Amino acid sequence: MIGGIAIITIYWYVLLICAGVAVLLVIFGDVFDFDGPIDPMLIVPWLTFTSLLGYLGESLTDQSSLVIFVISAIIATVLVFLLNFYVLMPMKHAESTLSTSEKTLEGQIATVVTPIPIQGMGEIQLKSVTGSISRPACFYTPQEKMIGRGEKVLIIEVRDRVCYVTPYESMLKM
Q1: Of 80, 114, 168, 174, which has the maximum CB count within 10 A?
Q2: Residue 34: which pLDDT band, with cuts at 50, 70 and 90?
C-alpha cells in the first residue's frame, strides 16, 4: 500500500490515465513537435506498459510489489524501444504521399496525350507502378515540327509543374 491506496489500484488508474493521454497524443501528436530529452510519445507507452504489466503481475502472482515493478519496467523498456525503433522512427521519416516529386520526373520517357505545338503547350502522360500522371508539356528547345498524340518524349526539366520535353529517339533499332 502506498498512502493507504492498494498498489493494484494505482496501476489501474495510471493505466486508465495513460490510455486517455495516448488517445490524445494519437489525435494531436502531429500538432506538437517534441524535440527535448523526454518525448511523450515514448514516456506514455512506457507508463502504460509498466502499469499494465504491474496490474497483471499484482493480480496474477504472489511476488513482492518491488519485484513486479522492476520486471514490468524492464519489459516496458524493451517494448518501448521496439515501438520506437520499428514504428515511430519509420513513421517520422516516411513520405506522406505516393506521388512523385518533380525532380524524379526529369529523364523519364512519357507519351504525348495532347499534341504539343511548335510554340505552345500540350499534355503528356507518365505511367508507373503507382498509377499514371498527366502534366502540361512544352518544348525545351525550339523545334521544327509538332509532336503528335501517342509519340514518345523525354522530359528534360520540370518547372512550375510544366514538363519541358524533347522528342524521344530510341537508340535501339529493331
Answers
A1: 80
A2: low
